[in-house]
Design a protein that fits this description.
Elements (H helix, E strand, L loop, with lengths): L1 H48 E7 L17 H11 L4 H8 L6 H5 L3 H4 L21 H13 L2 H11 L4 E7 H6 L1 H11 L9 E5 L4 H4 L12 H32 L4 H13 L4 H15 L1 H4 L13 H25 L3 H9 L4 H30 L2 H5 L20 H9 L6 H35 L1
Antiparallel strand pairs: 1-2, 1-3
Helix pairs in contact: 1-20, 2-6, 2-7, 3-6, 11-15, 11-17, 11-19, 13-15, 15-17, 16-17, 17-20, 19-20
Length: 459
């Protein structure tokens, strides 16, 4: 009997080891597939954000400058604008340096007010552009452009305002590198006139100008500045309202609420709410914040004019969206704190709240930060609730407060992907990279704070 038991024991151990090895290989294979999918995703996005374009010009670049435009400095590029389009300098300054201010308003506003924070000639600080003489306007506006914009930005302006560049076709990075000869042959067939034939040019849609421009009709001069600011404003409201409310609710449910049927129902509903489609939260935000609380969310009670479709409504809606996730993760983190921490604190004479504040919350903070990371990751990528509460698909005016009209980065990306003109899908790929970078930065910040909290607790 002892021999049979020993053999059975060895065979059972061998089976367990075999099962463990199989599952380990499956886990490693799954991990490898996930990493491969992530690499393919990044390569696909980069393949579109960095590529080649075929630009057709109404005016050929060599006719306005003996040297290539890329070799000119900011002053020389401004000189080109002063020569070719002197009457457009005031609208260009209003668009690129005065937050896309209406041209008539900009013309009647003192320069020190419309260009606050920008570089401008001190002697013209109290002068309006309309007060400048015909000879002074191109000189002063040109000086303002040269002192505030880079050569790359001025080059882009010249392409649109002077050369009137139009994106004829776009090619991905790999396609342009591997099939360049075939693409150039196709261009030669489409444009038989060699004098006006456009060239295949490398173009990075992910550049500094994308952060300085708002959305427009030309992909060469469109950017994400307005959408990025809207996203940051919405995230700020989520952090201000969503996270404190979620943590306080978790503290109440874990430390103060008695275990009865009512609290059990509340907790079950919170867990169910975490899986509710985001569009439902959008409808709730539309009814509650946009309509019912319009005097507050529109800023009317504070003297602002407008409706309830503001950043505040969007931020509060997204705060409701992430609230169940914050509560659930905070509950789990608080529940994981050993009872001995509480008992030791009570034994030293601390009150319940002193115990929670000084012992339980610091110990649970790493887990709470994990819930915060998950919540931010969900909030930053949601589109449906923002569309329902009134996010604009096109807006050129940057938000200047919580009561402003807005758009967000995911909505801007969605809008660009639906446009048929060449260049906008590639621009959307560049915006996706910015969104991923923003997400990584936020997550990395939360990870650092969580790690510091864990180390201070262990110390």
């Amino acid at each position: 009997m002892g021999y049979i038991q020993e053999g059975l024991y060895k065979s059972t151990i061998a089976k367990r080891h075999l099962q463990g090895a199989v599952w380990k290989r499956l886990y490693m294979a799954s991990f490898g597939v996930a990493i491969l999918a992530l690499i393919l995703l990044v390569l696909t996005i980069m393949n579109s954000a960095l590529g080649f374009v075929v630009l057709e010009y109404r005016i050929q670049p060599e006719t306005i400058s003996e040297r290539p435009l890329a070799e000119l400095n900011a002053e020389e590029l401004v000189a080109v604008l002063q020569t070719e389009v002197p009457g457009q300098l005031i609208p260009l300054v209003a668009k690129y340096l005065a937050n896309n201010m209406d041209v008539q308003v900009f013309a009647d506003t003192p320069i020190e007010q419309s260009l606050a924070g920008k570089n401008y000639p001190a002697e013209y600080a109290t002068t309006t552009p309309r007060d400048l003489s015909r000879e002074e306007r191109p000189l002063v506006m040109g000086q303002i452009l040269a002192s505030n914009l880079t050569a790359l930005q001025l080059n882009t302006i010249i392409e649109v305002a002077v050369l009137e560049a139009d994106v004829v076709e776009t090619y991905t990075l790999f396609d342009g590198l591997l099939n360049r000869a075939a693409i150039e042959q196709q261009i030669a067939e489409d444009f038989p006139d060699e004098a006006t034939r456009p060239e295949l040019q490398f173009h990075s849609w992910l550049n500094t100008s994308i952060f300085n421009e708002s959305a427009g009709d030309n992909p060469l001069t469109s950017g994400i500045r307005t959408a990025l600011l809207g996203t940051l404003y919405v995230l700020a409201i989520v952090i201000i309202f969503g996270f404190p409310l979620g943590i306080m609710a978790a503290i109440y449910l874990e430390e103060y609420a008695t275990k009865n049927w009512l609290n059990t129902v509340i907790e079950n509903n919170i867990r169910n709410l975490a899986g509710v489609p985001s569009i439902v939260y959008g409808m709730l935000g539309l009814q509650l914040f946009v309509r019912a609380l319009e005097p507050i969310t529109s800023g009317a009670v504070f003297g602002f004019t407008g409706n309830g479709r503001t950043i505040l409504s969007a931020g509060l809606t997204m705060a409701l969206l992430v609230l169940p996730v914050v509560i659930i993760n905070a509950q789990e983190a608080i529940r994981a704190v050993p009872k001995s921490y509480r008992e030791a604190s009570y034994g030293l004479g601390a009150t319940k709240w002193q115990t929670i504040w000084n012992q339980v919350l610091p110990a649970a903070l790493p887990g709470i930060m994990t819930g915060t990371i998950l919540s931010m990751s969900r909030a930053i990528g949601e589109t449906a609730p923002l569309i329902v509460v009134g996010a604009a698909t096109y807006i050129a005016q940057d938000p200047d407060g919580f009561f402003s009209k807005f758009t967000a980065l995911p909505i801007q990306i969605f809008t660009w992907t639906t446009r048929p003109q060449p260049g906008f899908k590639e621009l959307a790929a560049a915006a996706i990279i910015v969104l991923l970078i923003l997400l990584v930065v936020l997550n990395l910040t939360a990870f650092i704070l969580r790690d510091r909290a864990r180390r201070s607790l262990q110390a």
